[in-house]
Each structure stands twice: as C-alpha cells, then as structure tokens.
C-alpha cells in the first residue's frame, strides 16, 4: 500500500493535468465517483456559504491560494481516481466555474459522470440557483487556479475508506448511514455494486430506522450499552458505525427466523412437522458485511413503511390483522402530543415483535405495548424527556420481554403484570396540560366519555379502569 500527497488547484484537476507530489509517483488518471458514495446533496445553504467564503477570500487574501482542505482519492488498478471524499466541494465549484467561465468547459478533460438520480436532480437545481445568484453578485469572477487542495491518493481502498470515515470537512457532515453505506457497498463484488447502490438509494433516509435498530440492539440486559443522546450526533454516528459497520463480520447473507415445530407422534423418533416458519431477519441478530446488512436494513425499513407509516392507507391492507393494526396505530398513536420519545421506543418494540412473531396478535400487542411504554406520560408530573426511556427500561425491560418470549402469550403476560401509578398533578378541572389532553385522547379512542371538569383523581381512575378493561383483559384471540 502506498499513499501519495500533493498540492494542486481546481484548474489542474478539471483539466486532467499530471500532478507532481512531494514524493512518489506522479498523479494521473480520470476522476470518478464510486457507487458506494452518497449522492451529491449540497443545497442552497452550503452553496451560499461557499460563495461568500470565496468573496471574502478575494477581498482579503488574494496573495494566497484559497485552501479548501483535502481530497481523498483511491487509485484503482485501472488508473481511475475514485473520489472518496470531496465530491460535494468539487461538484459545487465546478458548477460555479462553468457558469462564470463557460469558455473553459472545452478544457475540462476530467469530467465526472453522475449516475445517481438524486445527484442529477440536485445538480440541475443548484445550477439554476447559482445562475440566478451569481448574476446578482458584485464579484462575478472566479478563477479555478485560486482554489487549492491537498490531494491524498492511495492504492488501498481500505486505507482510503479509513481516511474517508474520519473526515469532518465543511458542508453536510457524513452521517452514520453514509459511512456504513460505503463500508458495505465496497465489500460487494464490483459487478453487483451498482445494483445494491441503487437499492440503497431507493430506501431513502435510513437514519431514523437505524436509530431505532440501534436502541433495540443496545437496550439488551445481557449486553447493555448506553444509547447516545440525539443531542450528541457525533456519538450517535460513532455508535452506528461501530454497530452496523465495524462489528459486522465476513460471511453469507443470513436471516435468523423462528419456526414452531411439533413431534408428529410419540413414536416419531425425532421427526418433526413445521407448523409455522417466519421469514425475515431478527432485530438483534448478528450481521455480516455487505449484502447481509443491506438486506437486514431493507427488511426493517419495509416493516416501518408497511406498519408504522401514517401514509399507509388501512384500506390497502393485505390482511384483516394488518388493517386492524393500521387503524389502531393511526388513530391511537399518531395523534398523541408530547410523546415523540415514547413513540420511538414503541416503534422499536413493534419491529422487534414483528421480526419474531409476524402479524400474529399484532393489534393486541400494540395496545399492550402502548399501555407500558406510554405510562411515563401519566406517571411523570410534566414532560417526558429522552432520559425517561432509560428509567422506564430499567423498570420494565420491554424489549427483553419480547426478545425472550417464545410466544405472544408469554410476552403479553409480562406486559399485563406491569403496574404504575398516575401522578394527578396538572390534570385537574382548570388544567390544560399535555398530560391531561393525552388522557382524554386515549379515553376518546376507547369510546369513554368523561366530563372536562372531572376531578383529577376521577380522571386518573377512569384511565386506569379503561386500561384494565380495554387492554389488560384482551385475550390472545382478540
């Protein structure tokens, strides 16, 4: 493995000039964007900042080059220079140069092709915005020779990836999803990379589903790890990269599912009949690098879209149970106020349940999980904070209850035995708190009418009575 470092300007890159490094081989080759790279995604805010930075440079520092950090390139065996880090800056600068110096376009020997539809759309949109903005600029000039980079070129894709993973240049910072995408796509055979890159792109924004899966895997009593707060995005990113990138191993695409089997008869001597086989992945299963992890993420993204999307029309449900679940989820869960953290935990619990038991008794599971997971909304005096989830899971390890149950009935027994007391503060006749509105919304869903001037204790008793009769007493056949 060799690493070559050189200083160059934008004009040299665009024209395809041979670049001389401080030491080592000359840098030559056509620029390209690997399939595993995220699409070009800079928008107006990043372009506006880039252009203002350039104007500031022109005004104050013309004697020196405008330095825009490092570009990381991987030189593959064919001599292609794959852009590992820098496509956002390079693409944006190329658009600016093309608008202000159209006569130079014929000199661009290092044109880069963009196959991603998202990249193509963003380029067209940014070109229109820049065309309008630059014409209004008081400094409508731009020189590609003013823009300077440090090139880091390596012939090892792994080494380039490690550089890429640790970069924190300006603009849109890499998310955990961006990094693990590169990690898994680059491990797939080249003839399949384009297929899986397109499949990944179709999945859309994976950050919400990855965060839910992270909680489901971390909140595990036998292997408990702290889930980083969303207020600490760098810690979240590191946790995602470690769990879904670095800790994945080499191996085939494996989906762990449960099957329920019975002996045919007492004389069958070990022969079994399979009653039910669940197809799919289990939330806490071990993962292998490449296709396995991509299929795993696609599977749970599909569950979320199929069951927990407010856009999913119950009338389009495939089965009666699916329709019942969608109606309950959309009428009971989605309208509730002040419950975002609780909803995130509920969604994780539902994905874990579905990955083990499918749609079996799913609507009943939803109601019983709601009773437990949303209990802090009435036990807390006021707000439900992110830290509330840790307190709840210490007392009621609901994810472990699901994961360690062999049947829905076993899980329901755990959920039914959970008890809590309601804090009656802020739910009196004169109060208009989020907690009080929450209680009334839940009672309305279960067709329980309570006067709005009901005493706080009466309201609390009615809520508890409703849960007892409408949720706890649900049998596995309901």
What are the key terms here?
alpha/beta, 19 helices, DUF262 domain-containing protein, DUF7834, single chain, two-stranded antiparallel ribbon
Task: Give a structural overview.
Residues 168-172 and 272-277 have low confidence and may be disordered. The protein contains 19 helices and seven strands. Helices cover 49% and strands 9% of the residues. The chain is an alpha/beta fold and 478 residues long. It has helices at 10-15, 44-60, 87-100, 117-135, 157-166, 176-185, 190-202, 207-218, 233-246, 291-307, 320-333, 340-357, 362-373, 376-379, 386-395, 398-403, 408-416, 434-445, 456-472; strands at residues 3-9, 31-32, 66-75, 81-85, 147-154, 259-263, 272-277. It folds into three domains: 3-174, no CATH class; 178-257 and 283-307, no CATH class; 310-478, no CATH class. The radius of gyration is 28 Å and the shape is elongated. The longest helix is centred in the first third of the chain and has 19 residues, at 117-135. It has a five-stranded mixed beta sheet with strand order 1-5-3-4-2, with helices on both faces. A two-stranded antiparallel sheet has the order 6-7.
Radius of gyration, taken over Cα atoms and rounded to an integer in Å: 28 Å
pLDDT averaged residue by residue: 85
* Content-based structural category: alpha/beta
Strand count, sense and closure of the main sheet?
5 strands, mixed
Number of domains: 3
**Between the first and last Cα atoms, what is the distance in angstroms?**
63 Å
Work out the strand percent.
Answer: 5-15%
- The coarse overall form would be elongated
Uncertain regions spanning at least 5 consecutive residues:
168-172, 272-277
The number of distinct helices, counting runs of at least 4 residues, comes to: 19
């Amino acid at each position: 493995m060799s690493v070559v470092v050189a200083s160059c300007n934008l004009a040299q890159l665009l024209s395809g000039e041979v670049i001389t490094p401080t030491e080592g081989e000359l840098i030559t080759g056509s620029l390209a964007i690997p399939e595993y790279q995220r699409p070009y995604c800079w928008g107006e805010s990043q372009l506006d900042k880039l252009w203002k930075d350039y104007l500031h440079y022109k005004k104050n520092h013309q004697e020196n080059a405008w330095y825009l950090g490092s570009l990381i390139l991987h030189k593959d065996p064919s001599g292609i220079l794959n852009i590992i880090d820098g496509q956002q800056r390079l693409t944006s600068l190329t658009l600016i140069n093309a608008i202000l110096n159209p006569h130079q376009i014929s000199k661009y020997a290092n044109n880069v092709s963009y196959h991603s539809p998202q990249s193509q759309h963003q380029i067209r949109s940014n070109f229109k915005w820049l065309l309008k903005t630059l014409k209004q600029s008081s400094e409508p000039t731009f020189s590609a020779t003013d823009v300077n980079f440090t090139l880091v070129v390596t012939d090892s894709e792994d080494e380039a990836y490690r550089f890429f993973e640790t970069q924190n240049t300006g603009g849109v910072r890499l998310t955990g999803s961006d990094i693990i995408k590169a990690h898994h796509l680059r491990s797939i055979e080249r003839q399949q990379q384009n297929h899986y890159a397109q499949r990944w792109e179709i999945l859309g924004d994976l950050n919400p589903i990855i965060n839910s899966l992270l909680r489901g895997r971390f909140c595990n009593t036998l292997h408990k790890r702290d889930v980083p707060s969303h207020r600490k995005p760098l810690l979240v990113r590191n946790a995602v990269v470690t769990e879904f990138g670095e800790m994945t191993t080499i191996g085939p695409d494996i989906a762990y599912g449960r099957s329920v089997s019975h002996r045919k008869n007492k004389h069958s001597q070990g022969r079994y009949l399979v009653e039910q086989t669940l197809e799919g992945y289990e939330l806490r299963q071990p993962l292998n690098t490449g296709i396995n992890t991509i299929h795993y993420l696609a599977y749970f993204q599909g569950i979320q879209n199929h069951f927990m999307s407010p856009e999913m029309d119950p009338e389009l449900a495939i089965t009666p149970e699916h329709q019942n679940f969608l109606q309950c989820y959309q009428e009971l869960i989605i309208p509730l106020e002040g419950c975002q953290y609780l909803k995130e935990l509920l969604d994780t619990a539902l994905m874990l349940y579905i990955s083990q038991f499918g749609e079996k008794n799913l609507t009943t599971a939803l109601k019983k999980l709601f009773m437990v997971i949303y209990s802090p909304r009435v036990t807390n005096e006021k707000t439900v904070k992110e830290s509330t989830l840790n307190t709840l899971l210490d007392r009621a390890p609901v994810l472990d209850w699901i994961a360690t149950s062999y049947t829905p009935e076993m899980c329901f027994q755990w959920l039914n035995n959970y008890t809590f007391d309601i804090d009656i503060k802020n739910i009196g006749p004169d109060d208009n708190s989020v907690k009080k509105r929450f209680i009334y919304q839940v009672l309305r869903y279960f067709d329980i009418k309570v006067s709005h001037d009901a005493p706080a204790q009466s309201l609390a008793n009615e809520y508890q009575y409703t849960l007892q009769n409408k949720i706890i007493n649900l049998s596995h056949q309901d």
